[in-house]
Amino acid sequence: MPKHLKKLSEESLHKNPWWEYKHDTYELPNGEAGDYYYAQFSGMCITVPVLEDGRIVLCLQHRYLAGKQSIEFPGGGISDEGDITENARRELYEESGCIAEEMLKVGTFEPANGYAKDTAHVFIARVAEIRSLPQTDASEEFEVLIRRPDEIDHMVKNNEIWSGETLAVWAMVRHHFFKEQEAQEVQSPLSHIFKLFEV
Known about the structure:
Blueprint: E1 6-15, E2 20-27, E3 33-40, E4 44-50, E5 56-63, E6 68-72, E7 75-77, H1 84-96, E8 98-109, E9 116-117, E10 120-130, E11 143-147, H2 149-157, H3 164-173, E12 178-181, E13 184-187, H4 190-194
Parallel strand pairs: 3-9, 4-10
Antiparallel strand pairs: 1-2, 2-3, 4-7, 5-6, 5-11, 8-10, 12-13
């Protein structure tokens, strides 16, 4: 089993409103000191919003670094105010206009655990209504898309969805929307999804 690396020191090299660039030194297995540079975030929330008819809400936005449009589940960074679920509700509304009737936490994952500390918290939301998009940050512009689960599968297979975070989230929640029967995938009854909230 790989050995645990002991941290020797930690320093901040740069900090902005969104993340912090840090440098640690740690002890290598041979006793020497090593350097580790990484980004530290406050974490994020990503939500899969489900309408009463079983369709799912996604957001289309332009990603600056990739220089192209990206289809994603609504989500964003966790602020210092409120708990994680409330952060998820707020980000869901700001990016999609969705008002969540109920929120169910599915789990967490680390999007880039080799160079960033940034835990992603994944939710499924039962959507009560969709309102007009609120005024958001000047750098953010969203278009709401509504798709069936099988259409999302098709978009993944055709590489229309290429966001790593959205692909990871779909891998985590997909089994809630489909069931295996005679080695073929068939869509589950909608009631199966909403029973998740009956805890």
